[in-house]
Design a protein that fits this description.
Chain B: Residues 8-128 form the Na+/H+ antiporter MnhB subunit-related protein domain. The complex is a heterodimer of chains A (775) and B (145). Chain A is an all-alpha fold and 775 residues long. Chain A has helices at residues 2-22, 26-49, 74-97, 104-123, 127-145, 152-183, 188-192, 195-199, 204-218, 227-230, 236-245, 250-262, 266-287, 293-314, 317-348, 364-378, 384-398, 402-424, 444-462, 465-479, 495-512, 514-521, 525-529, 532-554, 559-581, 594-612, 616-636, 640-661, 673-699, 707-718, 723-731, 733-755, 758-768; strands at 54-56, 59-61, 66-67, 70-72. Mean pLDDT of chain A is 87; it is low at 771-775. The chains are: A mainly alpha (775), B mainly alpha (145). At the A-B interface, helix 28, helix 31 and helix 32 of A face helix 2, helix 3 and helix 5 of B.
Chain lengths: 775, 145
Amino acid sequence: MQFAVLGGFVLAAFAPLLHRWFGERTGWVLALLPGALLLWLLGQLPTVVAGETLVFEQAWVPGLEITLTFLLDGLSLLFALLISGIGVLVLIYASGYLKGHPDLVRFHVVILAFMMSMLGLVLADNLVSLFVFWELTSITSYLLIGFNHTDLEARKSALQGLFVTVGGGLALLAGLILLALAGDSWSLQELTGRGELLRGHDLYLPILLCLLAGAFTKSAQFPFHFWLPNAMAAPTPVSAYLHSATMVKAGVYLLARLSPALGGTPAWEAWLCLIGALTMLTGAFLALRHTNIKKLLAYSTVMALGTLTLLLGIGSEQAMVAFATFLLAHSLYKGALFMVAGILDHETGTKDIALMGGLRRVMPVTALCAAVAALSLGGVIPLFGFVAKELLFAAAWEGGWRDLLLPATLIAAILTLAAAAIVGIRPFFGERRELPRDPHEGPGTMLLGPVLLAGLSLLLGLWPGAAEGLVAATASSVGGAPVAASLYLWHGINGPLLLSLVSLALGLLLFRHWARWRAALRPLEPLIQRGPEALYFRLMDALVEVAEWQTRLLQNGYMRNYLVMMLLVLVGLTGVTLFARHELHLAVALDVQLHEALVVGLMVAGAVMACVLRARLAAVASVGVMGFCIALTFVLFSAPDLGITQLLVETLTVILLILVLFRLPRFARLSSPLERVRDLVVAAATGGLMTLLILQVVSIDPFSSISDYMVANSQPLGHGHNIVNVILVDFRALDTLGEMFVLALAAIGVFAMLRFHAGEYETRDRQARGEVVDD
Amino acid sequence: MIRSGTLILHVAARLLMPLQLLFSVFLLLRGHDEPGGGFIAGLVASGAFALYLFAFGPRATRQMLRVAPQDLIGLGLCLGVISALPAWWQGQPFLTAQWWTIPWIDFKFSTPLIFDIGVYLVVQGSVLIAVLALMEGDSEEVSHD
């Protein structure tokens, strides 16, 4: 299992090579991997339905309790089936949709990487690996939304999606760590068994809020819903896959997964029901504002995500069954509808539904798929969507908060039905209109997906028993206890059926008057404009402003200001700690030899000269004197390695300084007397504090030093007599490795600065114009 | 501006540079037991090249170096990472030192040595990159005049 998922990442890396071999057919070749996974997962279906949980153990970082263990129970199996199944269809679909696109290779690399990240996310048992896969889906989603990178809107939308989901990801990380601390385990399987402990824990509320922030941003819940419709800037295969069937459901998945551990408390119910219902209404309501078919579908996805959250909030057995059914139904019809939208866009050259009409004669198969999927979306008998909607009504009917949730669900159902009718009927019936392109039936590669998905919607609608096992297994893992599910198309005449009929009638009425409805909504436009998205933009602007302000303040390009700032922070923090937390012990017992005094005297003289001298070269030499005296001190106190290093560094510094000095402009302006006083104060404070600190360190000995260990073990463990070297290359080799990389980066930085020096010409220009230039 | 071409500097650089390089290798190899090691040796070696650079200019130095300093850095980082792998292979924690005695010449070969050579190359490459870039910037200006 792990092998297949990690192998998928490797396959993604090799996609460019496969392109060279298979050209246009690469999509089909790549689809083999998710296809094989799909078959294998279907093979596991009977075992999981029987109530077993398959565990695939794999260590990753044993020292930190991080594992790559995969868990296959009902919930993860349902998700994995959707991911791999729709993944196959999307890969094939994309080979038609993006045919001849110059960046098809890039698409394949990223979408395959996404597929594997998503699989890892729903299968992971360990919180850390779950988080890693979670962030990987955010990053791959960013790359896919911004696929058309020459388009400014696409880039903006991609960045917006990234900021929102990764911002939530930070909260999620905090939440997961708190969860692991509170539950004393990093394993989801163990945590779900510790519900009592977690719900009674002092940290319960912080954990819940952090996790909700992560889940709500990922799953586009109100008030973070705005990124999802904007993400429609992505190519349609991406929208069909990431932004309807899989990635946006990751947040819902996490909530469902943790529902046995954290669910059922008043806080859980209140947050999930409230936000879920709000999201559901917002999505359903805003969907009808749009004539762009992808935006309309995106808002209806927002509505569906809200519904799923709401069902998790209700938390009854009925709601769990409804959750699983709705999830499956939604992925099937929404995937199909997005693919239909892609065909329409591809064939007509526009995404605007208001421009389309009468297309059923030229694209009969597409029209049929659209009709079936739209009926399922609207929840019309005999589609699978109807079964899901009945269960939803039943759950809202029986759950708590009924007076609030039932009307909300009904309103959402009415609006959704109208949206479904718009998508399923409007483009295909009525008069033909002028279109940017002469439409034809879509190619076979693009029809395969919608036909299969719409067909499944119909099949499961007529024979809901086929999905019973999977739904029951999913509901059981969400509920934390075995749940029996029986799905029927016909429940007899009861409350939910009446609600369905009401929603059908009112929805159709709304569809007839769609244009008038949109006109009526227009006065609300300013209010919608001031929604959460406006807040997001203001936040981003403020962020940039603060960044600019602090750059002007702290990183203004003047070396002396950097120094002053750094030294003041150092003096401030260290000084406060020294004086507030410790008593000052100054046991000064001076026992100075003559040669030591001489060296120190030289050092002081060098420092004074460096400050006083006007000639630069002489100043450099004085600083050099100081450096060599320090080296001498090392040698006097028997640290030859440090001494040698200091000596060499000092030599090279002098060389570098000499090289640099020739490139510097003449001092045009020297510091004013006031500035000098300021610098003197800062310097004196720093020097004084360091002196106090060293005297203090000498007089206290609060903990045993690690150097005894190093001295004792250098020869037996490290096979070396030079302790410094053994520490550098053996005991602390990881630190050294890190420093090697830092050094390399610094060197690259220096190289870049010297080679691509735009600033230098600017300075020269300013000098030429006689402006003031200083260091 | 730095003028290259004085006789004393030429002769000194020619004579001293090989000695300095030899000394740096000596420091590198004995570093595990006596004062020395990759960092110090790298500094000595870059000092040697800097001397040559002052005497003969950047172009001659690059010709003598044959490899770009960037490549030295890359190679050094690779060696650093490579030295971490044998321990991994043995199932021990990352970067655990491995020692092998080469029988005929009685020389102890080890991953810390590979690591130290990596440090040596990275230090040398980093200093050379900066010094060469600075000198070349100067000579460009000279050619403008």
